[in-house]
Design goal:
The structure is a single chain. The chain is an alpha/beta fold. It has 2 domains: 14-211 and 335-401, Crotonobetainyl-coa:carnitine coa-transferase, domain 1 (Rossmann fold); 239-326, formyl-coa transferase, domain 3 (2-Layer Sandwich), CATH 3.30.1540. 38% of the residues lie in helices and 15% in strands. It is built from 18 helices and 14 strands. A hairpin with a 5-residue loop joins strand 9 (239-243) and strand 10 (249-253). It is elongated. The chain starts with 13 loop residues before the first strand and ends with a strand. The mean pLDDT is 95.
Length: 404
């Protein structure tokens, strides 16, 4: 069941979204879910390419219904000086501008931070790019997959000795987007003190690198290059995926000292649980193969469900590997309102992910469906003072596109 609609914690915040696909739009989507008024600027004609990515329903990606919910769409040709002037008018009234073009593109359109912050000193400008706005790689094109590789993640996502694989979703883009949202919220807080905006520079590879835990200090202190661990977590034991008799896998995290003892009791190996050499993680890491063999022998005699019942009963963290079908059927997801059923503009219904994070007093909400291309162009132009005659002239010259 969907929560009652909330104005959201960011109600009253006006955000201009420039850019396309994932990183910048995901940051703006998160702000929109929490109540911000997000005006998404798209190129006339095709709009954001994400509209046509993966599986389509009535000609539009169902991904679009998630990525662009709660946003308004305007269609401007940013190559045209008149469109660039409109963006300057919008930025003069906005709190936040989000863009994820290659560095230098905004400056080439007369929309760089020097120009926009002069027009609106309170503006917060989030810039997401592959390598950041400075440095020797700044001009290289950078997608999320490249940031994942350069940030150190791709090297770790493999079975030892096999080709590194991608996570399966655009995790580099998403991590960059979430770091961007953190930057926006921090800049808004600082603006309360100073009254001034600022530029937030997020690089895809740096967002990934920031999540690499002890990777660098281990190398600096010991020359250790962490390698791929497959389903295990090297240096922490026991934690792995163990095959069950029904062909499924159960994930077991028995690496806490007291948890390890309970796990050994569950699998009938108190001899290992009471071994003083295994009482701490360092000793368990030295004998991780022995421990994995013991746990695997136990799971091989049980189905995934049988193993989970026993492990849950002993308060040992464990779980199965979910497919999306498991997610859709799971009562906990629905109890937490993480699966929302929304009614699309064509009258059909669609299940989409719920809102994260959850705020107790001013929760986010699904307030409006993802917009058609240019759906809000004319309304937004009137908000910045353009007359109907001016709007008609811009439409006639192909500078803007309204909803067809």
């Amino acid at each position: 069941m969907q929560s009652p609609l909330s104005a959201g914690a960011l109600a009253g915040l006006k955000v201009i979204e420039l850019g396309q696909l994932i990183a910048g739009p995901f940051a703006a989507k998160t702000l929109a879910d929490l109540g911000a008024d997000v005006i998404k600027i798209e190129p006339p004609g095709a709009g954001d390419p994400l509209r046509n990515w993966r599986l389509l329903k009535n000609g539009t990606s169902v991904w679009w219904q998630v990525q662009s919910r709660n946003k308004r769409s305007v269609a401007f040709d940013l190559r045209q000086p008149e469109a660039q002037e409109i963006v300057r008018k919008l930025a003069a009234q906005a709190d936040v501008l989000v863009e994820n073009f290659r560095p230098g593109a905004m400056e080439g359109w007369g929309l760089g931070p020097d120009t926009l912050l002069e027009l609106n000193p309170r503006l917060i400008m989030l810039r997401v790019s592959g390598y950041g706005q400075t440095g020797p790689y700044r001009d290289r094109p950078g997608f999320g997959v490249v940031g994942e590789a350069m940030g150190g993640l791709r090297h770790l996502t493999a079975e030892p000795g096999r080709v590194p694989v991608r996570v399966g979703v655009s995790i580099g883009d998403t991590l960059a987007a979430l770091h961007g949202v953190i930057g926006v919220l921090a800049a808004l807080q600082e603006r309360h003190r100073s009254g001034r905006g600022q530029v937030i520079d997020v690089a895809l590879y740096e967002a990934v690198y920031n999540c690499m835990e002890s990777l660098l200090p281990e190398y600096g202190a010991f020359g250790a290059v962490r390698g791929p661990g497959g389903s295990a977590l090297p240096g922490i034991a026991p934690t792995n995926a163990y095959l069950c008799k029904d062909g499924g896998y159960v994930l077991v995290a028995g690496n806490g000292d007291s948890i390890f003892k309970r796990l050994m009791t569950v699998i009938g190996r108190d001899d290992l649980g009471n071994d003083p050499l295994l009482a701490r993680n360092a000793g368990r890491v030295e004998r991780v193969a022995e421990l994995d063999t013991a746990i695997g022998a136990w799971t091989a005699q049980r189905s995934v469900d049988e193993a989970l019942i026993a492990l849950d009963g002993a308060a040992v963290p464990a779980g199965k590997i979910y497919t999306v079908a498991d997610i859709a059927a799971d009562p906990h997801y629905r109890a937490r309102e993480m699966i929302l059923k929304v009614k699309l503009d064509d009258g059909d219904t669609l299940e989409v992910p719920g809102i994260v994070p959850k705020l107790s007093r001013t929760p986010g909400s699904h307030r409006r469906n993802a917009p058609a291309l240019g759906q809000d162009t004319e309304a937004v132009l009137r908000e910045v003072g353009l007359s109907d005659a001016q709007i008609a002239a811009l439409r006639e010259r192909g500078v803007i596109q309204g909803q067809s």
